[in-house]
Design goal:
This protein has about 120 residues and is an alpha+beta fold. The protein has a single domain, classed as Alpha-Beta Plaits.
Length: about 120
């Protein structure tokens, strides 16, 4: 999984045209991955101003506005891909336009037995 962390301030400073160009570049990467049968799923996320974080502490639910941590970078989207190994995954992550302004974290998924199959309605 590629977790794409954005820097909202940097994108605001770069301007709407730069953001649109980066989004187009990310879409092109998605099509390249799809043509090589490596694409599973991808999606940007809405701004952090629409987020909520939920914690359970001492049996009480705490809901706070915004992302889960105090940081300039926030989770902006994800890619779920097929890759042969870590080196190939890093190579793909390096091509993502967001890596130039924020970062792209590479994480392997844990396969759990007994989980439901993906739902087409999801």
């Amino acid at each position: 999984m590629l977790l794409c962390y954005d820097n909202e301030q940097a994108w605001n400073e770069a301007g709407p045209a730069a953001l649109r160009a980066a989004q187009q570049e990310a879409a092109e990467l998605t099509h390249q991955l799809n043509s090589r049968s490596q694409y599973i799923s991808a999606s940007p996320l809405h701004p952090v101003s629409t987020a909520a974080s939920i914690r359970i502490r001492e049996g009480r639910r705490l809901v706070t506005d915004g992302p889960f941590a105090e940081t300039r970078e926030f989770l902006g989207g994800y890619y779920l891909i097929f890759a042969r190994d870590l080196n190939e995954t890093i190579s793909i992550a390096s091509k993502h336009s967001g890596a130039r302004v924020g970062s792209v974290a590479v994480r392997a998924l844990v396969e759990l037995n007994g989980m439901p199959q993906e739902n087409a309605n999801g």
